[in-house]
Amino acid sequence: MSGPSTYDPKTGIERWLDSRLPIIRLGYDSFVDFPTPKNLNYWYTFGGILTVCLMIQILTGIVLAMHYVPHVDYAFASIERIDRDVNFGWLLRNIHAVGASMFFLAVYLHIFRGLYYGSYKAPREVLWILGVVIYLLMMAAAFLGYVLPWGQMSFWGATVITELFGAIPLVGGPITEWLWGGFAVGNTTLNRFFSLHYLIPFLIAGVVGLHVWALHVPGNNNPTGISVKTSNDTLPFHPYYTVKDGFAIAVFLVIFAAFVFYAPDVLGHADNYIEADPLVTPAHIVPEWYLLPFYAILRAVPDKLGGVILMFGAIGVLFILPWLDTSKVRSMRYRPMAKWFFVGFLIACLGLGWAGAELPDNPVPILGAVGIDFLFFGRVLTLYYFAYFLVILPVLGFVEKPKERPASIDAAVTGGKSAAPAAAPAE
Amino acid sequence: MTDETQAVDGGEETTRRDFIYIAAGGTAAIGGALTLWPFIDQMNPAADTLAEASTEVNLAALDEGVGITVMFRSRPHFVRRRTAAEVEAAAEADVNRLPDSNARNVNIGDGELATVDNRSALTAAVADGVTVDEAFARTILVSGANCTHLGCVPTEGAGEYDAWFCPCHGSHYDTAGRIRRGPAPENLPIPPMTFTAPTTLVLG
């Protein structure tokens, strides 16, 4: 971790343990005395919120697995039993199902915060890449979990997603049969999806450990994007940020609870309360809301393989983002042009989500008057999505004139009153 | 290895250690790779899954213009007795200008043209001593019922060709089960089939 350890074991037992397994020292240096920039705003609380989300999903998931039956003949009924007969089963399942949506809501805010404040730039590239790995694992876990209730959306979602691999030339067919363990999505598929759905959260927990480790080597980025220079720029993590994170978590849980108790199904699809039927595809199949933008990108391409490549490319491009953004300035607070392209990117992502939820041939409200349907709408936004990463960010670094940045974090917060102004030039 | 022998005194010992090092490393690498295979292969279709039964369809129960969906090899398949108008509508299309001009019919080899006849039950094998009415067989279409895009089951009697329309991503199929418009890359596949009686068709 950054800086020498300040842990001072007070009792004999602590000293005894510290010379054998310095685990208290690790916790103290990481979450108590860890020097944290003193200007972090509430957008920086989502790391803590996401940790809570992961714990909630693992805890509720473990107990739901005690009642769920991973068999095509019993899975749907066992979910109904959890809802109706198991003590507090309705509550635990609603928390788990709503929890998935809340998890993605928090991760998207966390990712957009990183994009705005340039948290992916040196020296935090590995931290960013580990975050993208976690995001990929989250999508895998969410997809596998959505199959388990064995409703119509479960079955057809599983069919569509596994068939994506069929687009791979030559090996596509054998790979899909390998994934299914048969010639279509069936009991074997459900069994292995359950096994993997149980595994992935623990993989996520492992990568989260690496993510926190990679965070604690360079330390937090902050809204100014300026590196920490002196101890005047920081505060100890505890109590300043344990309290701030704690307050944010409490507010987040209020929203979470509102969904769980008043609208547990509003983020899902009614069709998933119909048991899976391999003979009938629902008239309008769409993924869960958090995957809609990628679904819109998939449909934007008229070619099967091309659509699959572009959809995976939309996530793949995030891995190389640290090297695509050529600007030396981290925070978009001081990037007058990048700021507006970022707003455009945010709108494009939301628009892609909207396009993914609609039928491709439907006209877009208002724009439909000039013949624009959701397919065309999705194509334009897909173009902007990729242009943002592959053209706009690489070029902006050369053409944009950044605004003047404060001399230090301390100067940005207090105007430099708390200490003698640092002589060092800005970054 | 020559370098190490020169660098370290007692060349014989170094050589033996090198041998053990390479032998142990090689065993670990090859053994590891071989051990991995059962863990990968267990996910492939099991023996009981591979031992699939065939599916028998009684065509006499179908009136003209009626289609049913049957399960064959754990996948739904369309069986449709088309009206003369439906057959003619499909025959009007220029085969060479279809998105997929391959018949996709295992009963006649790969690469045959996707004509109406090449995609109908005319191509089915006929069991010994059975006589099939060709005009009747020509109206029968049997095909996989999973869209060749991403596997949804298209809706019957819908879409631009009043045949099949896939609700998932908007693929339109005609009355010969051929892809005409939309993201699907191929025609619906024709399964292996045999007439065991004038109106009994066995898939598989």
Secondary-structure-derived class of chain A: mainly alpha
Order of helices and strands of chain A: HHEHHHHHHHEHHHHHHH
Q: Biggest β-sheet of chain B, characterized?
A: 4 strands, mixed
Counting copies of identical and different chains, the oligomeric state is: heterodimer
First-residue to last-residue Cα separation of chain A: 22 Å
The helix-and-strand class of chain B reads alpha+beta
What is the CATH C level class of the largest domain in chain A, in words?
Mainly Alpha
Give the neighbour order of strands across the main sheet of chain A: 1-2
Q: Report the strand count of chain B.
A: 11
Query: What about the largest sheet of chain A?
Result: 2 strands, antiparallel
Short description:
The complex is a heterodimer of chains A (427) and B (204). Chain A is mainly α and 427 residues long.
How would you portray this structure in words?
Chain A has 427 residues and is an all-alpha fold. Chain A has helices spanning 12-18, 23-31, 46-64, 75-84, 89-116, 125-147, 152-164, 172-180, 187-216, 237-262, 292-300, 304-319, 321-324, 336-357, 374-399, 409-414; strands spanning 35-37, 234-236. Chain A has two domains: 24-285, Cytochrome Bc1 Complex, Chain C (Up-down Bundle), CATH 1.20.810.10; 317-406, no CATH class. In chain A, 60% of the residues lie in helices and 1% in strands. In chain A, strands 1-2 form a two-stranded antiparallel sheet. In chain A, α5 runs antiparallel to α6 (125-147) and α6 crosses α7 (152-164). Chain A is globular. Chain B folds into two domains: 3-41; 50-203, Rieske Iron-sulfur Protein (3-layer Sandwich), CATH 2.102.10.10. With 204 residues, chain B is an alpha+beta fold. In chain B, the strands form three sheets. A four-stranded mixed β-sheet of chain B has the order 1-11-10-4, with no helix packed on it. The relative contact order of chain B is 0.16. At the A-B interface, α7 and α8 of A face loops of B.
